[in-house]
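Can you give me the bound-state structure? Components:
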Amino acid sequence: MPQTHEKEKEHCLEDFSIGQKICTNPITMSKENIIAFANLYDPQDFHLDDERAKHTSVGTLIASGWHTACTAMRLLVTNFPKIKGGMLGRSVEKMEWPIAVYPGDTVKLTIEVIDLRPSNSKPDRGVMRTRNILRNQNDEVVLSMETVIILPRRV
Amino acid sequence: MPQTHEKEKEHCLEDFSIGQKICTNPITMSKENIIAFANLYDPQDFHLDDERAKHTSVGTLIASGWHTACTAMRLLVTNFPKIKGGMLGRSVEKMEWPIAVYPGDTVKLTIEVIDLRPSNSKPDRGVMRTRNILRNQNDEVVLSMETVIILPRRV
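Here's the bound-state model for the whole set.
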């Protein structure tokens, strides 16, 4: 029988440890995708069109902060060890965008497990808190956030 | 000259007041859009496919929490008074998803201004904090979050 690849193993709370760190593959945010996202979810001039962006407080086309956050989510889902039953977020805290993402920027995510806690009321599950930092090609932080994820215990 | 519509006036910090509340129009989250979003940003079985969702911890197709958050952002941008220069988020806090959004659910957003503060260091701008609550057709809360928005002062 072929060996199960680490990414395909289904992980429970007991399989993680505080301090564990994962760095994802990079992803480039194209102008086309920035505009397509903005049309659907954040239709503002500085996310939609080069010319119209010139007349805004930003002055140039930048990605919606929500597009940046969703790109971080994609990197998290596709790079983090697979959680048994799926990765379900309970909450997000302290989401900040220190600087903008520009068309063509390449970003990658660092995910650090900063807390692991069995549920007090439900013995079959627990929560994991991760600190997520998204950096651009110049190693500048473009997004930081903490996510609280519900995951099963190995019972 | 035709009168400027309220939505087209460009608002500064001085045009808002703490306690001000806006309720947006509703929007329906279709199965097609839920799956399209998930394919791009949250590719997990319970967001992608009815059949595959049955074998997850959720058991049925639900919208990605990030899709729900981006839908709230769309409602915020398209219903809130236009801010001079554009609406730029500095941070989001306490984003929570108390219950899931299912295909066909209709959601609407209540936005309340809970703080307004001139910047200490930059006299031409300030920050506004809003509490945003997204409810479904049964008046259940599906998302809550606080956003901190940078906006100009009338100087």
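A couple of observations. The interface with chain A takes residues 40-46, 56-58, 64-66, 69-71, 73-74, 77-78, 84-97, 152 of chain B (CB under 8 Å). The radius of gyration of chain B is 18 Å.
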